[in-house]
Amino acid sequence: MQNKRSKGIRNFVKGKGYYIVLLLCAVAVGVSGYFLLSRSDPAPSTSESSALTPSVSTNVKEPTREPATDVLATEPDETPASTGSQQTESPRARPVSGAAVCAFAADRLAYNETTRDWRTHEGIDYAATLGQTVVAAADGTVYTIYEDEHYGMTVVLRHSGGYTTHYANLSEEIPVTVGQTVLAGDTLGTVGQTACTETATEPHLHFAVYCNNIPQDPEEFLKET
After folding, report:
1. Which of 18-37 are b and which e, b meaning 16 or more Cβ less than 10 Å from the residue's Cβ?
2. How confident is the model over 159-195, as pLDDT tens digits?
3. 128 with 96: CB under 8 angstroms?
4. What is the CB neighbour count within 10 angstroms for residue 188?
5. What are the φ/ψ torsions at residue 86 (nearest 5 degrees)?
6. d(Cα 85, Cα 138) in Å, to the nearest integer?
7. Which residues have a Cβ under 8 Å from the Cβ of 196 and sit 6 or more positions away?
8. This prediction's pTM
């Protein structure tokens, strides 16, 4: 009986021996790994953690910004426009000493002997002799010098208050220049015969006054002293 049991165990071991050995090896490996892991430190030390953690600098400079440039708005000139009733403050001088031979007629028609028609006359013609000196009627600046198609060689002065004075029918020799400052009584030129629309009139100075481009009576302008 005993022999039969022993014989059965040997047959079992002989048939299953390979698997038993493989199981024992696996158990041995697992036990060895357990002891190895239990001996190692599972967590790194504080110093090691610090060494592995990259440092982040808080001293970061902000990008440099250019200072804003202040832009100053230029205020427009709000000087009130002058009207015909406002006069310049400089003294007055008659441009020539002769009497009026053709009156101011800006708001009505006057007969023109040269053109033989009726038209406005925005200045006064003062009798003079050829070559007679013509002077500035008030302090101002020479604004322009040109040859007008109707009134011939002309000098225009600009004055304060929006006024301009026009001296026409001058000779071609003009002693002043554009931009020049003149005073009342300074020479601007001499009387000539260059006004093609006033050749029927005796030698004279065509004198006109404007305020903001509106014709004014020259006699009223000359009364202001």
Report:
1. eeeeeeeeeeeeeeeeeeee
2. 999 999 999 999 999 999 999 999 999 999 999 999 9
3. yes
4. 24
5. -90, 135
6. 17
7. 114, 149, 150, 152
8. 0.60
